[in-house]
Amino acid sequence: MISVIIPVLNDVQGLRRTLQSLVPEKEGHEILVTDGGSIDGSPELAESYPWVTLLRGEPKRAVRLNEAASVAQGDILIFLNAGMTLERGWPAEVQRVAEQPGFTLGHCRLHYDAAGPGDRVLEAFAWVRARLLRFPFGHQALFIRKSSVVGGRLFIDMPALEDVELVRRMRSSGRVMAAGVCAVNPGDRPETGSVPRQIWRELQLVLGLLRGRTINELQACCDGGSDQALAMFVQRPEPGQVKTWLNDLMGQERAAALYRRNVEEVLHTAQTAPVDARAYVFYTPEDARQEMQSWLGDSCMLIAQQGDDDKQRRAQALDTLFELGVERIVLLGPHCPAMQRHHVAAAVRALREHDAVVGPTDDGGCYLVGFRREQRDLIVGLEWEPDGVFSELVSAFSSAGVRHQCLETLKDLDSVEDLPFNWALGLVQE
Predict the structure, then answer these.
(1) Confidence (pLDDT) at 414
(2) 292 contacts 284 by C-beta, under 8 angstroms
(3) Domain boundaries, the chain
(4) pLDDT level of residue 144 (50, 70, 90 thresholds)
(5) CATH of segment(s) 228-425
(6) CATH 1.10.10.10 given to domain 2-222
(7) End-to-end alpha-carbon separation of the chain, Å?
(8) 133 falls in which pLDDT band (50, 70, 90)?
(9) Residue 47: phi, psi to the nearest 5?
């Protein structure tokens, strides 16, 4: 038996396409849909098919894939993105390849259901990458034997490229083999003009891995995924350098511990929000990468801030995200524990209909600011005074004719007066 595992997050149309394509050859096989908190009807759609098993989990894709792989009953596991379909005859072909001596990982041929020349170029490059360099990617329908799942951990939890990291590990322990059927992807990939850029990114990624570089080192320059980003600006939590206004009240160590806690809470909120957006942390100072990775791990993309002042660092960070293909950014402040996942989700949804979104705090600041690429210069040019940034943003948006939405007002934590709101943290003692 083959277990088909389909991760989905707010892609009901893609899921419908995939499930419908499986109907003719579903008999004798297991279909698992693992949902990361969709609010667009994806779970309900999966439940409407009696032969589909729905698993509900957190938004982190790797975690959901591991959970599905652990409970799957099939001898072979094949992973399909929502929207992907397989060519007729796939069960027998996948079974045949998986039974070959030395097999560790299999993949299908990449095909786009669009007729443009750029699609054919990408398909040809994928053939070279997968067959000659032995580096297939997730949109080629990767499949493995269930016995490869050790300790319930097949995919490593990381903000992106978990499929590439899996291939990197599997190719070192056996043969990567191609099935003679196509994995058909929807034709909503980037337009033809971006084909050279996409090929260049994939080539950078593969060559970097072949030279021994890690996935984390390559993520920032090779990420070509979601066009939405959740970003934070974070300092190294060094006592005496963060939340200094609390030093006299609780001491430098406790103030730094409170800062760490706030950052961790906000980052967790961002990572578990039901949105298709990746988390980026822009940290300072530049030489703090090892400490930041030790603190925050691989759960987000870490990028050093660059520039001589706040305005330059902000501009550099935004330009970095835009170079990665991001179109919509939500900046999250690290001082508002009251911000919840539904606030982040509301901001991402607002940017579908508006050019900007602001989450105000009760002291005149903001717990989040979201905007599109077109507002880059306006955002960079603001002064960002902590106690007046909300009015500054709204005034600037109104003057420039930027359509914006304001979310509910929340309680902030950036002054001594705010501390009673946060006694429960256990870091301040009366």
Answers:
(1) 57
(2) no
(3) 2-222, 228-425
(4) very high
(5) 3.90.550.10
(6) no
(7) 62
(8) confident
(9) -70, -20
**Is the CB of residue 356 less than 8 Å from the CB of residue 331?**
no
Q: What is the C-alpha to C-alpha distance for residues 134 and 43, in angstroms, rounded to an integer?
A: 35
Structural contact between residues 57 and 64, judged by C-beta atoms closer than 8 angstroms = yes
Query: Partners of 79 in the beta sheet?
Result: 5
In which order are the strands placed within the sheet that holds 278-284? 301-304, 278-284, 228-235, 328-332, 366-372, 356-360, 404-406
Q: Residue 182's pLDDT band (boundaries 50, 70, 90)?
A: very high
Q: Pull the structure tokens for residue 358.
A: 């602001």
- Identify whether 285 is preceded by a cis peptide bond (ω within 30 of 0): yes
Any idea which residue has 């990361």 for tokens?
Answer: 36
CA 248 to chain centre: 39
Q: CB–CB of 259/237 below 8 Å?
A: yes
Distances (CA, A) of 279 to 172, 246, 294, 304, 332: 30, 28, 17, 14, 10
Query: What tens digit of pLDDT does each residue of 305-331 get?
Result: 888 888 899 999 998 888 777 889 999
Using DSSP, state whether 198 is helix, strand or coil: helix
Q: How confident is the model at residue 289 (pLDDT cuts 50, 70, 90)?
A: confident
Q: Which of 67, 69, 91 is nearest to 1 (CA)?
A: 91
